[in-house]
Amino acid sequence: MNACKRYMRLYRVLAAQFFKTVMQSKVDFLMGLFGFFFTQIMGIAFLYLVFDQIPSLQGWTLDQLIFIYGFAQIPRGIDHLLTDNIWLVAWRLVLNGDFDRYMLRPMNIFFQIIAEKLQPDALGELLVGAILVVRSLAKGIVTVDAAHVVLFFVSVMAGALIYTSIKLFFAALAFWLKTSGPFLQVAYQMSDFAKYPTEIYAKGVRFLITWVIPFAFVAYLPASFFLKSGAGAGVIGFEWVIAIVFWCIAYYVFNRGIRVYESAGN
Amino acid sequence: MGRLLKIYMPFASNELKRQLAYRGAFYLFIITSLFSSFISYYLWMAVYGSSGQGVLGGLTQNEMVVYIFMVYVTSSIVTVSLSTWVSDDVVQGTVAMNLIKPIDYRLSLIAKALGRVSFQFLAPAVFVWIGLEIYKVTVLDMAPVSVMGVVLYLFSSGMSFLLFVLFDFCFGMIAFFTTYIFGLRMVKEALLGFLTGQLIPISFFPEAVQRVFGFLPFSSMIYTPVMIYLGKYTGRTLAFMLLRQGIWVLALYGLGSLIWKMVTKRLVVLGG
């Protein structure tokens, strides 16, 4: 319990430092935010143009697809906000030996990595996600009752954990490969597949994004639970199982990686 | 001309060599860039399946397959992040070194870009292209592209390349005013995805929007060469499209020179 309190206090201290740097360069912050926000808006504009041609896509209406799209942004944004520093491990912290500094402090190493940086650009994604989910609520296409509201937050957290696990796993490969940025990039980009109903993909692709790099569990599968009344809540439970399994694998690999880390330089 | 080549070719060949040295990372990058092509492929197949119509936005389902993958090939010939090079040079101050050398900074960047796209084209794009042609003939039952079609396509893509790098040079000039162009670059990429026809054929936009796009240089970057490849332009339309590309190349060249003159006047570089 004490350890938990200590880490929470540390996180506050580190995050406060970070906010100071953000406030120092407000323009940069606003431009990054705007950049991510704008990119997401374009994704929606694309859907509108496509649906100009068709009434529904394999049984899904435009409003439903917009909900899936928006819902997908929220776990993505949460992970992006909190754990963006993992990218640096993949790209250069291991390669240039800067990872040393984490090994020297008496704190959990993963904690140090994520506490070092908050990524305010992610607010752009969260904003778009929130707007689109609220829009769907106004349209009355999502089921709203106490259970669904609670499960919404439960699912979003599991989704963010899946994102973090996938990032951590591929970043940890850097301990063996020195830099694993490109691999992480490939894996992360797979999440783009999950923005649309997975039924449109060929079997192999569907298998890949459901079971190997399980982004379907972040976006499409839970989102469809909120859309269809009467669908089982089991999918959210399953999302958590997937999240925990992938987290354990990623964290295990990460810890093994730390043991083979040999720093750099002469 | 010969002298120019002698001065600027090393920039191109050096970039090519650098790319060859780091090709591992590059191949993975290729995989990710093909992802989005495959996502649009599956999405469009589902769209055509759901529409019950053979032709959407003036393209048949088979033509759409060609469109999607030729967009991939074309963007590897055309797009290169020249503005990143400019902003790196400005932020690190190395642009000063380029100012004192007796070379044209912009030409050296374009030569470097040429080296980069040669690699992008040779390493993966040409194989995607050949694969597409084989797929077209064996599975889709379409006629292979004519020699004339290839020549016109490559000519048009070459102009698109010039158009793109000249535009991106102008965009990179923003780095002289703010050091954080990451956000702006994202906006640029998202916008270009639409304006160039990369995400969705321009014929899918409402009539009025299409007319506005006609007055912008962006549709000439990717949409025009791909439509030429599909054989959608013939005779006078074709000549007009190529002429429009040429005019934009000249216009953006002029604009770039103008901005460059303006910013170098007020440039301050610290240290030495």
Largest interface, counted with CB-CB under 8 A?
A: A-B, 41 and 38 residues
Give the oligomeric state.
Answer: heterodimer
Strand element count of chain A: 0
User: Would you identify the regions of chain A where 5 or more consecutive residues have pLDDT less than 50?
Assistant: none
Question: What would a concise description of this structure say?
Answer:
Chain A is mostly helical. Chain A is 73% helix and 0% strand. Chain A is globular.
Q: How would you sum up this structure, described in words?
A:
The complex is a heterodimer of chains A (266) and B (272). Chain A has helices spanning 2-24, 26-51, 62-83, 86-93, 100-104, 109-115, 122-139, 146-172, 174-177, 181-189, 203-212, 220-227, 234-260. By secondary structure, chain A is mainly alpha-helical. Chain A has one domain (2-260). In chain A, helix 2 packs antiparallel against helix 3 (62-83) and helix 4 (86-93) packs parallel to helix 8. The longest helix of chain A has 27 residues, at 146-172. The mean pLDDT of chain A is 86. By secondary structure, chain B is an all-alpha fold. Chain B has one domain (2-265). In chain B, a hairpin with a 2-residue loop joins strand 1 and strand 2. In chain B, helix 2 (23-51) runs antiparallel to helix 3, helix 3 packs antiparallel against helix 6 (105-138) and helix 3 (61-78) packs across helix 10 (223-229). Chain B starts with a helix and ends in a 7-residue tail after the last helix. The model of chain B has no long low-confidence stretch (mean pLDDT 86). The A-B interface holds A 25, 27-28, 30-36, 38-39, 42, 45-46, 49-50, 52-58, 121, 179, 181-183, 185-186, 189-190, 192-193, 196, 199-202, 205 and B 24-25, 28-29, 31-32, 35-36, 38-39, 42-43, 45-47, 49-51, 53, 56-57, 178, 180, 182-187, 189-191, 193-194, 199-200, 204-205.
